[in-house]
Amino acid sequence: MEKLTEQQIREHLEELKGWSFKDGFIQKHFVFSDFKETFSIMTRIAFECEEMNHHPNWENVYNNLTIRLNTHDVGGITENDINLAKTIESLVKSK
Ligand SMILES: C[C@H](O)[C@H](O)[C@H]1CNC2=NC(N)=NC(=O)C2=N1
């Protein structure tokens, strides 16, 4: 999987509302209603990640969830990160 250029990353992010490219990661901060809702969506995301064999760096504090994605092997952003971000968005929308 090829490392995307900064220009390519920015183009993809136009379709990913709330996602930004910072410190070598694409990232987004989510706020849900409470811990139960947050952990429930994290569980659904986790199962998709296993299917995709692509996993987030994430931090959860009560109803806050920060997700950071990159591809370790290439030390940057690849289509795998974009695809996972899109999957996360669709799971969050269908919650
Ligand atoms: C060995 C295994 O294939 C790798 O560690 C996979 C698993 N999940 C991964 N997740 C993410 N976000 N980046 C990776 O490079 C990655 N690599």
From TrEMBL:
Its EC number is 4.2.1.96. Pfam families: Pterin_4a (PF01329). It catalyses: (4aS,6R)-4a-hydroxy-L-erythro-5,6,7,8-tetrahydrobiopterin = (6R)-L-erythro-6,7-dihydrobiopterin + H2O. GO terms for biological process: tetrahydrobiopterin biosynthetic process. InterPro entries: PCD_sf, Pterin_deHydtase. One of its GO terms (molecular function) is 4-alpha-hydroxytetrahydrobiopterin dehydratase activity. Keywords: Lyase. CDD domains: PCD_DCoH_subfamily_b. PANTHER family: PTERIN-4-ALPHA-CARBINOLAMINE DEHYDRATASE. Belongs to the pterin-4-alpha-carbinolamine dehydratase family. This is Putative pterin-4-alpha-carbinolamine dehydratase. It comes from Flagellimonas allohymeniacidonis. The lineage of its organism: Bacteria, Pseudomonadati, Bacteroidota, Flavobacteriia, Flavobacteriales.
